Prior knowledge:
- By secondary structure, the chain is α+β, with helices and mostly antiparallel strands.
- It is built from 20 helices and 28 strands.
- It is globular, with a radius of gyration of 28 Å.
Amino acid sequence: MGIEGIGARVARKEDRRFITGKGRYVDDIKIIGMTHAYFLRSPHAHAKIRSIDVEAAKAMPGVVDVLTGQQIVDDKVGNLICGWAIHSKDGSAMKMGAWPAMAPETVRFVGQAVAVVIAETRNLARDAAEAIVVDYEELPAVADIKAAIAPGAAQLHPEAPGNIVYDWEIGDQKAVDEAFGKAANVVTFELTNNRLVPNAMEPRAALADYNEAEEHFTLYTTSQNPHVARLVLSAFYNIAPEHKLRVVAPDVGGGFGSKIFIYPEEMVALWASKKTGRPVKWTGDRNEAFLTDAHGRDHVSKAEMAFDADNRMLALRVKTHANFGAYMSLFSSSVPTYLYATLLSGQYNIPAIYAEVIGVYTNTTPVDAYRGAGRPEACYLLERLVETAARQLKVDPAELRRKNFITQFPHQTPVIMAYDVGDFGASLDAALKAADYSGFQARKEKAKAEGKLRGLGFSCYIEACGIAPSKAVGSLGAGVGLWESAEVRVNPVGTIEILTGSHSHGQGHETTFAQLVADRLGIPINQVSIVHGDTDKVQFGMGTYGSRSAAVGMSAIFKAMEKVEAKAKKIAAHQLEASEGDIVIENGEFKVTGTDKSIALPMVALAAYTAHNLPDGMEPGLKESAFYDPTNFTFPAGSYICELEVDPGTGKTTFVNFVAVDDFGRLINPMIVEGQVHGGLVQGIGQALLEQAIYDDTGQLITASFMDYAMPRADDVPSFKVSHTETLCPGNPLGVKGCGEAGAIGASAAVINAITDAIGNNKLEMPATPDRVWHAIHAPLQQAAE
């Protein structure tokens, strides 16, 4: 490791422009002749559109045009798609309801667009939108899973009777039933995983520009995967041929999964730019983000675990209802199936597992991937169940986990996943030591004497990252491959450009990817630039999500670097009149082993491009590309311990300690990794204590602003004790596993387990607000008094 190579705690290169206000986001981009779009959105959760009168709006000052849902349908712009095909247990395909970019006839959630105003300024567009008259026929709405599946419930889509998208299963039901039949103990638990709003720092935005002379579109957008956006917009939405569409994702202020998808606004902006002959910009406000960004989570589950007389796990049975909202989003079908149920084995050796997942339509915002995407839901269910089992069986929760840990690798779970490597016991031991677990009971008694309730909770998580290989995910219904691409360009003066299909929106790629190059060539990272987010510059890529950037994206760079180095060594050997096998790369120089002969990288690069003295038959230039398709998922894992106090008089929770021990394989930049863990932990704690998207019975989102939706703030979270164990991933050349989602996956269960331990009542749902905690403390006392 050099001072800037792999393993070095290098400050992020990109932060200079961000903290000085020099970032370039979509809303910063201005084009001559640019207009502004404002969407008129439905105030109803479910209604028929009898008529839309736009004439008064068209006559307003500064209005360029007013366009409706029927017009976009008439122009044959395609409906939004779901890119992962799931089949029910009877073999039938999932029931997809049509989702047009703007509703022509029926609206199915509050906030669905019905028309768009294009005007010279955003304020003029907003004013004109108020002049549009829509005659709605309001219909009955179903705002939650229970209401949607009730007999006689209002139906959202004729294609989905009973509002059921699919009824899917995984595992061996017969083996599970047999295991439960011989179990010494059975633990049963019902729980809800609360709905969340992603709330990235930068709201979504799109700027579309149609060039009539070239019949070419350019779209600037807040996307995590611009190449996939271009593919979908061209292949499925009939916007433009792929070679006539450029998609650029410049600096993007956070995504957390919510910017993976293609939304109606991007489609409408492109279509409207061609219709009006003007560039069209739309920048969402925070209220629109609450109403229209894909929400996350929202599961209702029943879980049962069978144990033998020695407290070893025999089987797990799970039934989950997943709320998809009003429409199927791009990857929504995969989240509660292959990204959730396949992780239900957790870190444990469970011989038999059977899970059912029923997907349900409701009159709410569509639900899709949000940081962790299925893995947080699986971890929360399993770790709450294991903690409940420890209490029911009256055994130490740490030892119950340790007794059931997987210890032999590779390990094939009953639900598809084949874990390649890990040491779960090492992470637990490190967490127990950092948390001073042996001293907890004394601290609990001291807190009790001071009138406080102290609790401690565990969460031992595992996740699957770098979703691959493409052949495997294709067989499970994925509509795209999940490889990654890279191109390494060594310029004639020795500077290096890395073109990557990964996209950075807070992960620090401009630093960590450069560190890989610096490590291999021994050059400063300021000689390396990272190019991403532009389909005209990078050939193709799959983007960033699922903690895949290091395991897949950097591995592609590694493969391309190997090719560049091999060619450069040939050139150096030729220049130095040495054997290629004797050439080594050190500190930016190609050296002949055992001699003082060397040639610097810039001179090798210059030789490659002048081509005056190259080996016979060698092409000029020094540029190579690679595509990398992993052989397996990666499996980050860890142990979290939360210690906290609850005030029985108010129900307020105060953190005492939070320990996070993660195994991410090799760390490229430990400082960036710790930042990712901190952010994930805060989001997991936010879900546990504060956040919840709440709809009333009519489908109105009543938590549609930061006045109503409680985001975690600095004083809501503790200082974290973060550390790492290391088992190198054998499935990629760097030994990395992924770190971006871990905190959000493991934190929530640790917090709720700690609160329920403190208050002595296991019946507590997220978010554990002071009011909810207070009632959980006092309800049993009131019942006993009665």
